[in-house]
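Re: the 157-residue chain
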Amino acid sequence: MKDWGNEVSEDDLTKVRDVRALSKMDSLEVYSDGASRGNPGPAAIAFMILSEDRKMLKRYSKRVGVRTNNQAEYEALISALEFASTLPDQQAVCYIDSELVVKQLNGEYRVRNQKLKILWQKVNAFKQRFKRISFKHVSRTNRYIQEVDQLANEALG
């Protein structure tokens, strides 16, 4: 996984674990967003992971090639869960501005698109790595969603 052009090292993970140990929190707030210029078009993903007391644990963004917006939304969440799942004893609340993705993940909508179904299955596989995980729809006016949206758009250039 690349982080602002650098590989995520074991030292990075140790620093995050140290922050979590100091804050004595076992719940993560995950904010993710995908952006696509065109549908499909050039796309990027971004996420932020905060401890329960809102300490920043990770900010990340990257270009992902040509994707639909929904594919980019799923890929942003998958990247966030990939990182979050490396942390010990975690629970996560994932905040996403895509109502479609949240309703699919919560079982309210079926996933009909085959490409999205593959991404949906990846998210479901990550769910097993958490003590507890939930997916919540939030407005694009949420300050953390605005921040990850900006990160994704900056990655697009």
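Helices lie at 10-23, 69-84, 99-105, 114-127, 143-156.
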